[in-house]
């Protein structure tokens, strides 16, 4: 993990869930990161990384995107290279949204969803969504830049009754 003076540098966010039962529609969960400007840290995100994309400056990348939860290990992975981020950005919110294509679903209906956040093999946090079972989306983590430039992490679990697009616009609300 980054030292006390340097703060966080490269963080990995990993999402996994079990596939839906045989014959049932697939469950599609998505990692989403919103990046906020220094002059509006609780406003609208400057940009959003989701659905198999990356940030314009290449500091946040969605490396793996599953639409079913099938397979071994993690189903979605996102890398945040905070130490390379421009000084114009001081806040990043990471969350998860459930695609609502085949009817409304909540985290309480998804089998064994889990997010792990690590830096350099050190686990910063693990979330299982038990605190937001009725939500369709959840903000989980806040990364923020301190005055000296060091990036820090704060768990920030908040549920939202919103589709992925609405959640992406609202995820940074205080």
Automatic annotation (TrEMBL):
Top-level taxon: Bacteria
Residue ranges constituting the TerD domain according to the UniProt record: 4-163
Matching InterPro entries: Stress/Tellurium_Resist, TerD
Record family assignment: Belongs to the CAPAB/TerDEXZ family.
Name this polypeptide is given: TerD family protein
